[in-house]
């Protein structure tokens, strides 16, 4: 339960960051963000279409922000496929909410809209709001001030509605006390680890051959492309002038769109030479620029690869962008058995080692659950029993694997002096058998500051639960169609 709460709080914080910082990127996202584009429609909400390009742009924005906040996606607990799915679902939720608040009685005044626009850094020059830059950026995105202000007004209405829903979550003193007791709980355990011994020499040539034939599609060199490209750096094109750099990138992107069969016109506009990449694999295994997901996705998109068009402008970060097209293609090719035999032999040896470790570990679990002593079984199998006292949920130790601690806190309490037992895989494919012998609940005597801390965490979780229930209800009531 507590792990679920912690995960929910972490996830809530991560996506709250995305929600809070997404609005300043509205204009940077480009005209297609507002008016649709030629991309494939992936969803439709009450007749409003959401395209693949809109989802990709939102995912890129969120990735940049999460990486700035957490360092990398892994630290945020988010992978790329999750990011794309959440970007799509986020756009669907926004469309649902816009329909809801438009039909409702919520109101946002002109002063609040003006204040929000003036706070957006994208419209600032010299640290203050610039009307000239505001009008310039809106014009570049083919928006009138009235259109953009209406968009901001809707976003403020959504925020107002969100606060109304999430602010209604109630947390009782009993909830905070119970959470504190669980979080401060300590456990005493015994455990042993069955090693996943690998023996590649024991894997026969016949087994390697059979595995290769059964899984030949896995052993191919990925499709590759060689790219013609223009890399745009503000430091080179418009040092210390972000407005000028924005204008240049927009002009170059427009020229590349208008002349889709060549990047030469865009290069001439910028006064730069075209560059050429080495072979770029489709699996994203290249290092540096050519391994970045947004670059690989653009290079292997239908428009660029199949139809031979120039890519859209790829935003790579502040003051850094890219235009590309395919110069040459190398199709995926099967790898011969001799090229992958050693890899297959190691893979089979690892799998056999893991399987043998798990089988023995699960056998020991069953014997202990039936009343056998862990120490006697360990002696029989030539294993070592290890003990740890006073473990808490946050224990990080080289001596006790994290997976063992996690498993120990997922097992039930011992009953009538009978320890509870369970198993888990640990790093390297080893298998640990864990026995909980004692549980001590944490102190529930909370100070005011501590109580408010727990209350705030629980309120976030409860608010998230209420919000998800609301979104689920709206999706059922309104016409939402997924196309991809």
TrEMBL record:
Its main location: membrane. Residues 203-342 form the PpiC domain. It is a single-pass type II membrane protein. Keywords: Cell membrane, Chaperone, Membrane, Transmembrane, Transmembrane helix. Gene3D superfamilies: Porin chaperone SurA, peptide-binding domain. GO terms for cellular component: plasma membrane. GO terms for molecular function: peptidyl-prolyl cis-trans isomerase activity. It holds the Pfam family SurA_N_3. It is found in: Cell membrane. The chain crosses the membrane at residues 12-34. InterPro entries: PPIase_PpiC, PpiD_chaperone, Trigger_fact/SurA_dom_sf. Belongs to the PpiD chaperone family. This is PpiC domain-containing protein.
